[in-house]
TrEMBL record:
Protein name: DNA repair protein
UniProt xrefs under Pfam families: DUF6388
Origin organism lineage: Bacteria, Pseudomonadati, Pseudomonadota, Gammaproteobacteria, Pseudomonadales
Organism: Pseudomonas ogarae (strain DSM 112162 / CECT 30235 / F113)
Top-level lineage group: Bacteria
Length: 107
């Protein structure tokens, strides 16, 4: 079961709550930059938040969906179970054996 949109939104809230400096930065973005991109200030802010989230996931060596699960799971065991479930779904969609997929992704 891949992370739901609701889980991802909750993960973004947690991520932002843990980084007050990022919240301040996002709250003070130049509205002209949003206008130049043809976006509303809210859209531009959301895009910057997603970029920061994805950069943090990459820094941790995770996919963004893994960081979402990590931040929203009830326990480390729950995170690991959900993570493996998603990886199994991806392996199946890719038509790979579980063993080959695990080897490819160091699982």
């Amino acid at each position: 079961m891949a992370a739901t949109e609701q889980q991802h939104e909750r993960a973004l809230e947690i991520f932002l709550d843990e980084r007050p400096e990022l919240r301040i930065e996002l709250d003070h973005l130049n509205p002209l930059l949003a206008q130049a991109k043809g976006e509303t200030a809210a859209q531009y802010r959301a895009e910057r938040l997603h970029e920061a989230f994805e950069a943090e996931a990459e820094r941790l060596g995770l996919f963004a969906w893994e960081l979402t699960l990590q931040l929203t799971a009830a326990s480390p065991q729950d995170y690991q179970a959900q993570r493996l479930e998603v990886h199994k779904e991806v392996a199946e969609m890719a038509g790979m054996t579980w063993a080959d997929y695990c080897q490819l992704h160091d699982l």
